[in-house]
Design a protein that fits this description.
Elements: E1 3-4, E2 14-17, E3 29-36, E4 48-53, E5 59-64, E6 69-73, E7 79-83, E8 90-95, E9 101-106, E10 110-115, E11 120-127, E12 132-137, E13 143-148, E14 152-157, E15 163-168, E16 174-179, E17 185-190, E18 194-199, E19 205-210, E20 216-221, E21 227-232, E22 236-241, E23 247-252, E24 258-265, E25 268-273, E26 278-282, E27 288-292, E28 299-305, E29 308-313, E30 317-322
Antiparallel strand pairs: 1-11, 2-3, 3-30, 4-5, 5-6, 6-7, 8-9, 9-10, 10-11, 12-13, 13-14, 14-15, 16-17, 17-18, 18-19, 20-21, 21-22, 22-23, 24-25, 25-26, 26-27, 28-29, 29-30
Length: 342
């Protein structure tokens, strides 16, 4: 199914709000805040469930409870266009590593794949038996993992949409799914507090890690894949050895349930929580190195690319953070990203 999305889709305006809040960590500062505005058929701005920076670093995709996916410019917050093909809350989105494809999914049980280069809906990836909560591409973009309110994790061929594996999940409320950096493993977690790991190539079960006493909202692998970091409703942030499941460190996050986790540097992770803050942690010791304030609601989504981090969630704003340090040029991609913003 091919469907043109530019010209046929009405844009929803955004407003840049000048920011005066800065992080306490000297090298991290708030660049700007984007206040989303309601769509033409809505009274209130959308709650943001997921945000993802395009691999080239110039654009971001934003998923919301108003059924829309907004494509926006990172540096200015300018709205490029709005995808309005979902029929319910969009819970998850992910760019492929090469930047060619955007996958979106949510409560309408649909997975949609968008061709970034041609500005079209590439295809519908299928109807799922339940809400889709999480998506992830593997390292080379050939596989796409899909997880949600079901007892299985679906692994699809990202090029043709065909099912490769159906993996038996630990429980039927999965909130997060991740491939390891080398693509050899896939891990998922949710309501039961258990991280289940499979061999991504064969689909065989590898191990369970009984990580938390309550729902896990987010997991992430370390840069080398040797560790898994997890956080959730039990207000704990933990690290485990991937190869054995042994717990390395655990730390209380105080009153904050952990809703989002992102690896922002090889030795630093960030978490977003129900205390409306973004907290920065040393990956080795799980010591808190700083926290970033300003949000007025739960920080449900985090993404980082190069020297930029974006946080968002229940307060309907996007906060763009400058992580400091040397600014490397964006990666050279074969996708003419300018066509994605015409």
């Amino acid at each position: 199914m091919f469907k043109h999305i530019l010209g046929a889709t009405a844009a929803v305006a955004t407003l840049i709000v000048p920011s005066v809040t800065f992080a306490q960590m000297p090298l991290v500062k708030l660049s700007h805040t984007v206040q989303l505005k309601p769509g033409v058929d809505r009274l209130h701005p959308p709650v943001v469930s997921d945000v993802e920076i395009h691999p080239a670093g110039k654009l971001m995709a934003v998923a919301g409870d108003d059924h829309y996916v907004r494509i926006m410019e990172v540096s200015t917050g300018r709205l490029i266009f709005t995808l309005r093909d979902h029929e319910d809350w969009v819970c998850a989105l992910k760019f492929s590593p090469d930047g060619h494809t955007l996958a979106t999914a949510g409560k309408d049980h649909r997975l949609l794949l968008w061709d970034v280069q041609e500005n079209i809906q590439l295809r519908a990836g299928g109807e799922f038996p339940s809400v889709v909560n999480a998506l992830d591409f593997n390292h080379d973009g050939t596989r796409l993992a899909v997880a949600g309110f079901d007892k299985s994790i679906a692994i699809h061929d990202a090029t043709n949409g065909k099912s490769i594996h159906t993996l038996e999940a630990h429980g039927n409320d999965i909130r997060t799914v991740r491939f390891s950096p080398d693509g050899k493993l896939v891990a998922a977690a949710g309501r039961t507090g258990v991280i289940r790991i499979w061999n991504a190539e064969t689909g065989t079960f590898v191990r369970d890690i009984p990580a938390h006493s309550d729902r896990i909202h987010a997991i992430v692998f370390s840069h080398d894949g040797a560790k898994i970091v997890s956080g959730g409703d039990d207000r704990q942030l933990k690290t485990f050895v991937t190869s054995t499941g042994q717990q390395i460190e655990a730390v209380s996050t105080g009153d904050a349930k952990v809703f989002s986790v992102a690896l922002i540097r090889p030795a630093t992770i960030a978490t977003g929580g129900s205390d409306n803050q973004v907290r920065m942690w040393d990956l080795e010791t799980l010591s808190e190195v700083d926290h970033l304030t300003g949000h007025d609601g739960t920080v449900a989504a985090l993404t980082a690319q190069g020297q930029t981090m974006i946080s968002s969630g229940f307060d309907t704003t996007l906060r763009v953070w400058d992580l400091g340090g040397p600014h490397s040029p964006p990666p050279v991609l074969t996708v003419p990203v300018s066509r994605f913003s015409n």
